[in-house]
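Our working data are protein records whose layout never changes between entries. Getting from the letters to the tokens is the skill we practise here. To make this concrete, we reproduce a full record directly below:
***
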Amino acid sequence: MRDLSAAIRTIPDFPAPGIQFRDITTLLLDGAAFGACIEQLAAVVGEDFNLVAGIEARGFVFAAALAHSLGKGVLLLRKRNKLPGATLGVNYALEYGQDRIEMHADAVAPGTRVLLVDDLIATGGTAKAGAALIRQAGGVVVRAAFVIDLPDLGGADALRADGVEVVALVAFAGH
């Protein structure tokens, strides 16, 4: 198994002093590392789901590649007002305010088993909103998969407390 942490750049003091930003774009630029990442995700997520839900925007990249690899469909979880037609949505708290995540109202039939995917889990707000949105439609969130976990920020634990199994390929201490 390839150590993917070496392909992820750390940018100190971005977007604010004291933050160690984990930049996934360097992994995406490295074809071999990106391929290994998708293979490793496929190996840990299983196949007991029908759809792979990607959270806008970087989550789309990993969800689409993983879904293709496993022969599954892709569900897009988008920011507010980005989807045409009828939508379902969930508001969630940000550090200063609120945001909203939406999906097409007819995208998930009741009982559909869904894997939730994003590039990184930090505080877990967006991932918890994604899980709530899938459940609102009657879907079942089988697990959530991330390339990076920042365990010190508690997002993976918050998602587990919400009843979602969490898997991640790389963990970085700190913020």
User: Anything to note?
Assistant: The first helix runs from residue 25 to 29. The chain has a mean pLDDT of 96.
